[in-house]
Amino acid sequence: MPENPPTPWEYCLYIPNDLRAVTVSRRTLRLILTVHGLIRLADTAELLATELVANAVLHAEGPAALRVSWSAGVLRFGAWDADPEPPEPPRQLEELGDAEDGRGLALVRACADQWGWQPLSRNGRRGKLVWCELAAA
Questions:
Q1: Is pLDDT at 99 greater than 60 in this prediction?
Q2: Which of 4, 17, 40, 45 lies 20 to 30 A from 133 at CA?
Q3: Contact call for residues 79 and 55 (beta carbons, < 8 A)
Q4: What is the rounded distance in angstroms from the CA atom of residue 64 to the CA atom of residue 84?
Q5: Are 120 and 78 in contact (CB under 8 A)?
Q6: Residue (of 82, 63, 75) closest to 14 by Cα position
């Protein structure tokens, strides 16, 4: 397998609003990264994708999707959901203490090279994409 794939690629996995979709998304992401020779990014990418997809499934009604792309040495992935409202701003991990909730975007902010969100609309449907990036270097 190539260490750094030279050709850009993109995948999109549409998922139902079902908590089992989080596991399906995580395993699919690991497979994508493995076949493209990017296994060294898999552990961090799985953690972050799990948080993004879980937020999409837990906090929005309707379908969701995991989008994964590679270009110019950067892995970008995110979760789309049908809720156009922006995500709650992440708090600092230190502020959360032992809290079970509210860690998702704080982990994304702490571990990703870049992250953000953007509103999306398509065929009259509105929603958002919460994304993050990991550089291969």
A1: no
A2: 17
A3: yes
A4: 12
A5: no
A6: 63
Pair of tokens at residue 44: 């961090």
The two beta strands, 9-15 and 125-135, are: unpaired
In this predicted model, what pLDDT tens digit does every residue of 107-118 receive, in sequence order? Answer: 899 999 999 999
* HEC string for the chain: CCCCCCCCEEEEEEECCCCHHHHHHHHHHHHHHHHCCCHHHHHHHHHHHHHHHHHHHHHCCCCEEEEEEEECCEEEEEEEECCCCCCCCCCCHHHHCCCCCCCHHHHHHHHCCEEEEEEEEECCEEEEEEEEEEECC
pLDDT in tens, 45-92: 999 999 999 999 998 988 999 999 999 999 999 999 999 998 887 776
